[in-house]
Write a structure and sequence with these properties.
heterodimer, A: alpha/beta, GMP Synthetase, Chain A, domain 3, eight-stranded mixed beta sheet, four-stranded mixed beta sheet, 14 strands, globular, B: Amino acid/polyamine transporter I, 0% strand, palmitate (chain A), Spore gernimation protein (chain A), germination (chain A), Spore_GerAC_C_sf (chain A)
């Protein structure tokens, strides 16, 4: 009995031992933007939301300037009545300028910081990150809006799968380069996903526009889905919803410098702008799509090789197939790699109309 | 030689040795073994785990042989080999061994809490609270400690399921090609795996307390097999989830894997995971204190209770002086080395010594 009393006593005694953070007394940062300033410093933009009495949500943006990433938070904290915390961070926006200069330091912070979840989305903005975050999007608060925008597009497989974990995974993986989605602010309350930025090491070197994203995704994501339209002849167009796509790399047995990317797409026709959609037409559409995918993907791959970037992770793939793989030699080999694209499309349904 | 007989009511059922061994093995090292082993053998390191597991079966067989021959614990074995006085001297270092073991376990856990949840957690107060709990359990006797080890293994077992959330982000192709590393690298990583496997030595101390010890053998082997497979599967899951460079950057890969998990009621799962880890740590420390104080009792002929107090006071005194990551990782690597030397080198030596002594005595 005595012991029990002691335990209960200690329970009360020790509950005051550590710093508490009560959810009503903190500001949760929902989105962060980083920009390069003219001098060596960096501009940080922190987006939080305020819940008003009438149940509406307003955005609050704080900016600060410092040379260390962590100092940015400390400086921004001086403008806020409640301490800023990073535990609920969902979106990180990298300014265009900074992307070109390199994001290595920022990745280090994200790797090191305990409080940041691995589901955080990284994006590159067109123009400055500060401006992108200052916009007023949606009714649920800008931070949540941006997070949902990215999350839904990744779920629908419009965007290649990306989050902080996958970014760090690829960044520290030898034989693979990173890529991030791009955000474009159209007006003060409109924003759109405008493509994918390709990195070499930690610097942006190339951009894939949104029209080519479908092909890019076929190359980088193991599984995917998405919409695509094929022009046929002059006035006929067919829109195809791919439910399932899959890619596979195969190294030729005879010639190790030849790799085949086998892409399989299963889909359904959703829209067709001509009179009748017969079996023959469906076959034609399949053929057209196959040709289109093969030529567009090949263009992309040729471009990767020219820029010496490897977002598909071919280096990592070759490593997993060869014992004692030499990355130094690979750097030279990659440019001369003979990549072949073979696409196979199967249209399973044509909707509920004949 | 008079071995004090232990009454049946204080003994444990043979199958409970399964929980005792497993809960002692899992704890220290389970948070970061993936990084340590991958440093040397890359993503072939899971082979090292299986190799160490296989070795441990032989060691376990040796341990049972030792304690069966002398019909007692390791102190009896020492006295059997080296006589009464020298036997006790030889047993003395094991008090320190278990002291360092529980210190390393507890301090590593406190470090995790400090880094992950409460940066300003006081080491002293937490240790005091934890030690009072341990004292309460250890005073209940071995049966209570083993009971706690059962709960310490079964209750947090659900944590394994939470790693299923990592699978969508995993690429199992990354462990290919198999056997890309030399045998030397594999052995090196096997050595570094030893910290996570420490714990089977408790058989040497618990043996007199097992009812029908013959029957406990299969459970002990099953425990090692389960731990080995658990570690191997878990290592492969980690390797699939992280890339090699990324894994080397992560101090606690196991905790980093929880970062992806987000549930509707909790934004960050690590908080629940770490709180549950307390249950995994508890039997580790309790066993160490129980064994340590029992050794004190046998060697110095004082009451076991006094040994427990001694252990707890020493803990409180030392633990507040270990502050930085460097010191903690030094403590862990020291523990790994001592543990390796004890299990892989000392036990075979003792086994041979006991066999020789047996032959000599028969003549």
């Amino acid at each position: 009995m005595k012991r029990l009393f002691l335990c209960v006593f200690l329970l009360f005694l020790m509950s005051g031992c550590v710093e508490k953070k009560i959810i009503d007394d903190i500001s949760i940062i929902l989105a962060v933007g980083f920009d390069q300033s003219d001098d060596k410093q960096m501009i940080g933009t922190f987006l939080t939301d305020n819940f008003m009495a009438d149940k509406s949500i307003t955005n609050q943006v704080f900016t600060s300037k410092a040379s260390l990433r962590r100092d940015l938070v400390i400086k921004a904290n001086r403008q806020v009545s409640q301490p800023l915390v990073t535990g609920g961070l969902g979106v990180t926006v990298i300014g265009e300028e900074l992307g070109k200069r390199g994001i290595e330091d920022i990745l280090d912070v994200y790797q090191r910081d305990v409080s940041i979840g691995a589901r955080n989305f990284f994006v590159v903005s067109e123009g400055s990150a500060q401006k992108t975050l200052q916009g007023q999007y949606g009714t649920e608060g800008s931070g949540t809006y941006l997070y949902n925008l990215l999350n839904n597009h990744i779920k629908m497989k419009d965007l290649p799968e990306t989050n902080l974990h996958l970014l760090l995974h690829d960044y520290y993986q030898k034989g693979k380069d990173i890529y991030l989605p791009r955000l474009k602010q159209i007006s003060n309350n409109q924003v759109e996903i405008s493509g994918v930025s390709l990195f070499k090491k930690d610097k942006v070197v190339d951009v894939i526009p949104s029209e080519k994203m479908f092909f890019f995704r076929l190359l980088v994501d193991k599984h995917g889905k998405g919409n695509f339209s094929v022009p046929k002849k002059r006035n006929e167009r067919a829109s195809i919803r791919g439910f399932h796509s899959k890619h596979e790399f195969k190294i030729s047995k005879k010639n190790p410098s030849e790799v085949t990317v086998q892409i399989n797409i299963k889909g359904a026709i959703q829209e067709y702008t001509s009179k009748k959609l017969g079996q023959k037409v469906v076959k034609e559409i399949q053929k057209d799509l196959e040709k289109k995918v093969e030529s567009e993907c090949l263009k992309l791959v040729k471009n990767f090789q020219k820029k010496d970037i490897d977002p598909m992770g071919l280096g990592a793939f070759y490593k997993s197939r060869n014992r004692g793989f030499d990355f130094k030699k690979w750097e030279g080999d990659y440019k001369n790699l003979n990549v072949k694209i073979v696409c196979h499309v199967l249209i399973e349904e044509t909707g509920i109309s004949r | 030689m008079h071995e004090q007989t232990i009454p049946d009511r204080l003994k444990i059922s043979p199958y409970l040795i399964f929980y005792a061994i497993m809960s002692m093995q899992i704890g220290l090292g389970a948070m970061d073994f993936q990084r340590l082993i991958a440093k040397y053998a890359g993503y072939d390191a899971w082979i090292s785990i299986l190799f160490v597991g296989a070795c441990l079966h032989i060691i376990l067989w040796m341990m049972y042989k030792i304690v069966e021959t002398v019909n007692g614990d390791i102190v009896t074995a020492h006295m059997y080999v080296a006589g009464n006085y020298l036997g006790k001297v030889l047993s003395f270092p094991f008090i320190l061994y278990f002291l360092v073991h529980s210190l390393a376990t507890l301090r590593t856990f406190i470090e995790i809490i400090q880094v992950w949840i409460f940066p300003d957690l006081s080491i002293f107060w937490f240790t005091l609270g934890f030690m009072l709990l341990c004292m309460y359990i250890v005073f209940g006797g071995l049966r209570t400690v083993v009971g706690i080890s059962f709960f310490g293994l079964v209750l947090p077992a659900y944590l394994l399921l939470t790693f299923g959330f990592n699978l969508p982000y995993s690429n199992f192709g990354s462990i290919l090609p198999i056997l890309d590393h030399s045998v030397k690298d594999l052995l090196k990583s096997s050595f570094h795996m030893s910290l996570s496997f420490i714990g089977i030595e408790i058989v040497l101390f618990l043996y007199p307390f097992i009812k029908e010890p013959q029957k406990s053998k299969k459970w002990a082997h099953l425990a090692i097999l389960t731990t080995t497979l658990l570690y191997a599967v878990f290592a492969i899951m980690t390797f699939a989830y992280f890339s090699e460079g990324q894994l080397q950057k992560a101090i606690w890969p196991t905790l980093m894997m929880w970062k992806i998990l987000k549930l509707s009621f909790v934004e960050r799962f690590e908080f629940i995971g770490i709180a549950n880890w307390n249950l995994i740590i508890l039997p580790n420390v309790c066993f160490s204190i129980w064994i340590g104080s029992r050794l004190v009792k046998k060697i110095f002929n004082i009451k076991q209770k006094k040994g427990v107090y001694l252990f707890i006071i020493t803990h409180m005194a030392i633990i507040t002086f270990i502050h930085t990551r460097k010191e903690i990782s030094l403590l862990n690597s020291m523990m790994a080395k001592i543990g390796f030397a004890f299990i892989m080198l000392y036990i075979p030596l003792l086994f041979i010594a006991v066999q020789i002594a047996k032959k000599v005595k028969r003549k």
